[in-house]
């Protein structure tokens, strides 16, 4: 029998008002950022560095990263972060310099990420699965001062060492590579040989450049997407908004942080170079002092064993990964502590929501819609709203606006007519999470971003009377 969720106890509008009350952690202020006027979350750290330093101190003794037989607490991770930051600083990395990271999900990925941000650098997250041509393209156009890769990526770039040096790359580090190609240093050996020294930390604010992630490059070379500290950090509350709204819709209140609650944990099956893996999980779990369990390669059977052994509370992935994981869990759910199933990055199986409810009736299912250019989440929802509308992508978070316009409408988006609910058009997104634009590609930036901060997604969809977004099709082939 198909499950019919109960009617919500609060309207969408009532929930939005509660989330914008002064005491709400999701409350926004209207701010002007250049030509952009946006609603920005009030309760955000000023920088990614501040976020990490706060969590590293507050959760020092908690487990942070688990990878196969390795376990690191926040304090142990921070010791490695400080050592790497000191090494990079000694080799000339300063505020605004790019530090490229290209690895599968291993602890060194997160260590490199936080070390870059301690220096006020711009972290460049390169897709580790790209072809050699596309991989080198991403590295060369960003001209990193330092490049940190794993053994597989070191082999790909081995023939390009001289070219990388000519681009100004002064440090080439290879993690988990006992004998890397000539020109690369083993990551651990370089850190152990370096005597850490204190270094001045430059002032870093919300509007400073922070990250470069890349579009998928389906039929062309990937484009770099440049974002500021605020644009990245805004996803902290964009991600949380779906679950918060689900609680409010059932008549509950926004939960206050509970220092005595069991540690949240995620089985991360999505790459850290992807906005879902990074912005929606690395960021969110680090803020709350959670544990992040990494896998060398996704395996449903191994993943199910990890869920039980590690007491995982949140399983994430693209829909087919989550479905495969569900099917491998014990039929009686014995030992399973999952509270949330989160997925995105593709349309879910028609039977996934119902299957999840049957197997884990106490767990909350959630999904959303987003893009690299909006730093992950553009819409999200969870719980009964999702079960009642499994073909929707949810509602915009409190700081985000959606606008559906005719696909043929010229720029700027702000001047285009908004289509009525139910009418299919191009999905446009506005908010503090919308990126600066494409790295050193003014023409592409002008076509996708207007001066007021609207982004044209290239996706076709519509909203219903309550604001729930439904995807209809792609308006363009290149993401």
From TrEMBL:
Claim: Nucleotide-binding is one of the keywords in the record: no
Superkingdom of origin: Eukaryota
Biased composition (Basic and acidic residues): 352-361
InterPro entries: AMP-binding_CS, AMP-dep_synth/lig_dom, ANL_N_sf
GO BP terms: secondary metabolic process
Single GO term (MF): CoA-ligase activity
Every AMP-dependent synthetase/ligase domain range: 55-439
Keyword annotations from UniProtKB, A to Z: Ligase
Keyword Phosphoprotein found: no
Chain intervals for the UniProt region annotation (Disordered): 342-363
Protein name, UniProt field: Long-chain-fatty-acid-CoA ligase
